[in-house]
Design goal:
about 220 residues, binds 6-(benzylamino)pyridine-3-carboxamide, Trp Operon Repressor, Chain A
Length: about 220
């Protein structure tokens, strides 16, 4: 999977050099190509934004600079995603769907957003990571890259995505490891029993219980 990221702050993406995503890049399972939008400004002060027509607070990113940055990419087979609080909310189903693409171009906005005309020309999907506003689209882009990369072949161990939250429409059951007694609290006895039928039954009950408590909306589907 190839990710091209159009951003004013490429340095923010250094956190993706860590841990599982960092290893996936090193192993060539994913690639992350950072494009600094500011490099495509033709203005002598490297200006990338201007005041909104019609008035109002803040600044709007200029369409020509964004379009030039986009045009510098080989984009024949790519899906272009714009991270925005106005987008459709990301969920695990959407993540899995996007992981089937070969090439994603992710556009990160700042200030009050981007001139609508260039969005209409280049964007295939507008996606939000949830109902809140951030200072830029970079953190949402990293959320998207992390969640999608987990589904790319070889990034996780084979079984890791089978029993996690949302995979069966429910939240995941609680997990325990050594020691058997922590601050006076024992690991649930059934997990030590070796009876896998009983363990599966207990985990299903616990999944239902936590889903009812924290996300009853998931049960109504
Ligand atoms: N909820 C999200 C995405 C971006 C963002 C921005 C218009 C502001 C939250 C376009 C206004 C982009 C999200 C940058 N905040 N901020 O996914």
């Amino acid at each position: 999977m190839k990710f091209d990221i159009l951003t004013l702050f490429p340095e923010m993406f250094s956190s993706l050099e860590q841990s599982i995503i960092g290893r996936a890049v090193e192993n060539g399972q994913i690639s992350i190509n950072l494009i600094n939008i500011r490099d495509f400004s033709t203005d002598k002060h490297k200006k990338v934004d201007d005041t909104p027509y019609g008035g109002g607070a803040g600044m709007v990113m200029m369409p020509d600079v964004i379009y030039s940055a986009y045009k510098s990419l080989e984009s024949s087979d790519a899906k272009v995603i714009y991270m925005s609080p106005k987008g459709k909310t990301l969920n695990q189903e959407k993540v899995e769907e996007l992981s089937k693409e070969n090439h994603l171009i992710i556009l990160c906005g700042h200030y009050e957003g981007i001139d609508q005309r260039v969005l209409d020309k280049i964007v295939d999907e507008e996606i939000s990571i949830g109902d809140y506003v951030l200072t830029g689209g970079e953190i949402p882009a990293m959320v998207l890259i992390d969640s999608v990369s987990r589904y790319v072949k070889g990034v996780l161990k084979e079984d890791s995505i089978k029993e996690e939250s949302f995979s069966n429409g429910l939240l995941e059951y609680p997990q325990y490891t050594r020691p058997e007694i922590f601050q006076g609290e024992r690991v649930p006895e059934v997990l030590l029993s070796g009876n896998h039928q009983e363990i599966d039954k207990w985990r299903k009950e616990k999944s239902l219980e936590i889903t009812k408590k924290n996300r009853p909306d998931l049960l109504k589907k």
